[in-house]
Amino acid sequence: MTSVPKQFTPTRQVPKQGLAEKIRRAVPNNIPLEFGETKTDVDVRLKPEHLLEVVRVLKEHRDLAFDFLRNMAGVDMQEQGLHLKIHLYSFKHNHTVQLTVECPPEEDHPHVPSLTSLYRAADWHEREAAEMFGFIFDGHPNLKNLLLEEDLHIHPLLKAHPLQEPEILQGIEEGPPGFPF
Amino acid sequence: MTIWPEEAIVRHRGETEFDFDTVDMTVNVGPQHPATHGVFRMLLTVDGEVVVDCEPYIGYLHRGLEKLSENADYRQAMGWWDRTDYLAGLNCEGAWCMAVEKLAGIEVPERAEYIRVIMMELSRINSHFMFFGAFGADVGSFGTSFTYAWRERERIYDLFEEVAGDRMFPTYFRIGGVTMDLPENFEARCRWLLGSIRQGLEDLDGLLTGNEVFVERCRGLSPVTPEQAINWGLTGPLLRATGIPWDIRKVEPYSIYDRLKFEIPVGTQGDVFDRWMVRLAEAYQSTKIIEQCLDEMPKKGLVLNPNLPKTLRIDSGEVYFRTEGTKGEYSVYLMARGGNKPYRAKLRSPSFCNLSALREMVIGNYVADAIIILGSLDIVLGEVDK
User: Fold this and answer.
1) Percent above pLDDT 90 for chain A
2) A52/B22 Cα distance (integer angstroms)
3) Which of A74, B35, B101, B161 would staple A133 via disulfide (CB 3.0–4.6 Å)?
């Protein structure tokens, strides 16, 4: 049972002081983490192979207790490879952290462990990220297209994808439907 | 001589219920169906009348909001965000504007903040009225709840038209303030409107909350515990119906919400009836917020920051700005890497996350109740499909 307070102490949407230290102390030392800040949250950069272990610690540690998966967003960083931004929130402590999963740039379809075993909410977020960017979430039970058509194997939110060429997408122009990558 | 094999013969379970061996049947609901509140399709597998599996299909309204936003100027993109939660366009505009302002460090004049809050709360009421009307129709009071709700919605839309020039998609907010000042008679009209809204809420309350058929159908239907709600990613009235007083306007206040006094209605069971009651109470609270804003807002002053750059360029930065949308946590993730366009814009839409828990909620219920459960989620497909 997660303990949820009856009253929340309001916090402004700025990075929480001391949260980075707590995370560094809670996560085992052999996992390399880099800390930064966005305008609203503490940012933790990590490699995909450590993701599941780190998130498990974040969820189960008493002082962190990140029990709520807020959001998941892929970003195509072009030469730096695909990044996955995960926002976790703790009802108990009312704080948010942003995890940046940095996938290796040489992989077109990087493998990332699925968080569905920890957060049921990750299901659709992962399906969306998979179809829009080409992530492969290992351990996801049902990784098929969600917003796009089921047989459409394109990744529209990649920067290489053209914005205004519907003819290519519809297969009206020469060549097979879909944009070749 | 028996016609049926032994195990298929009726097995007595209690006084009235009999169990036959049945074949599962697939029922397709939607995408063009009034009960799905838009272009949403779900594939129900039913055993008799009981749902044993449900697979939601979305994406019929996918317009590529995020891709379009990445290819438009920060100011141009706002028109797209209006059209996500089209029942409360101003809340979406507000979230986008505030996210960009946070990223660029732009100040908003105080009067504009009050105007924004008034308009956003009116939008929230508007969206909740849509829920009251449509949900009443789902439950079986076909026309009356719709008519009651639409009376107030038309009046709110009239006020929007007077203020911004448009009804559903006003594009009234600007980065750094709002387009233009309020019309002269706004305060008097708004106060009259609040009275009308309260009357409308009372009417709907009297029509449905005390109605025995309504209560019997909704009470105890698909109860959700707080732990389930958190794990499934539910936010907004669905989460508050389980008893957690989590409202981003209070918990992580933005704009001027920390100066306003209002309460967060919560439920106890997390069932469909609680969701209805929470929304009803929330609309009452919104009228209180608007009244306070009308009392406290500066009567004169700028409504748009005068020191805005001609072209808004943001060098770098990330922001995950969360607001309390009408359906739950409506957040905008923005990443800037130079230039006048966002490098990445992501919408965390509450309907999308709430809908992803639909399967767990409907399994084990009757088909007719599945429609009510879907209605109680209060989804907007523009927001689900982006």
Assistant:
1) 23
2) 42
3) A74
Q: What is the pTM of this model?
A: 0.87
| Alpha carbons B248 and B235: distance in angstroms, whole number | 10
From B34, B57, B80, the end of a domain falls on: B57
The verdict on B52 and B126 lying in the same domain is: no
Tell me whether B331 touches chain A (CB under 8 Å): yes
Closest by CA to A176, choosing from A159, A151, A156, A157, is A151
Mind spelling out the 3-state secondary structure of chain B?
Answer: CCCCCHHHCCEEECCCEEECCCCCEEEEECCEEHHHCEECEEEEEEECCEEEEEEEECCCCCCCHHHHHHCCCCCCCHHHHHCCCCCCHHHHHHHHHHHHHHHHCCCCCHHHHHHHHHHHHHHHHHHHHHHHHHHHHHHCCCCHHHHHHHHHHHHHHHHHHHHHCCCCCCCCEECCEECCCCCCCHHHHHHHHHHHHHHHHHHHHHHHHCCHHHHHHHCCCCCCCHHHHHHHCCCCHHHHHCCCCCCHHHHCCCCCHHHCCCCCCCCCCCCHHHHHHHHHHHHHHHHHHHHHHHHHCCCCCCCECCCCCCCCCCCCEEEEEEEECCCCEEEEEEEECCCCCCCEEEEECHHHHHHCCHHHHHCCCEHHHHHHHHHHHCCCHHHHHC
Same domain assignment for residues B146 and B250 = yes
CA-based nearest residue in chain B for residue A100: B318
- In 3D, which of B268, B254, B270, B264 has the Cα closest to residue B285? B264
The domain locations on chain A are 23-152
User: B250 and B143 in one domain?
Assistant: yes
A chain contacts of residue B356, beta-carbon cutoff 8 Å: 121, 123-124
CA distance A151 to chain B (A): 13
Q: Which residues of chain B have pLDDT under 50?
A: 1-16
Positive or negative torsion for Cα B210, B213, B216, B218: negative
Into which CATH architecture does domain A23-152 fall? 2-Layer Sandwich (3.30)
Give the whole-angstrom CA distance, residue B241 versus residue B176: 35
**Tell me, what's the pLDDT at B207?**
87
Contact between A70 and B244 using a beta-carbon 8 Å cutoff? no
Residues of chain A with Cβ-Cβ distance to B385 below 8 Å are 147
Contacts with A, B 107-136, CB within 8 Å = none
Determine, yes or no, domain membership for B1. Answer: no
Chain A contact present for B338, CB below 8 A: no
Same-domain status, B82 and B156: yes
Indicate the average pLDDT of chain A. 84
Amino acid letter at B112? A
Tell me the two tokens of residue B150: 């639409």
pLDDT value for A31: 86
* ipTM, interface predicted TM-score of the complex: 0.85
Q: How many domains does chain B have?
A: 2
Asked if residue B242 and residue B337 are part of one domain, the reply reads: yes
Is the same domain home to B41 and B98? no
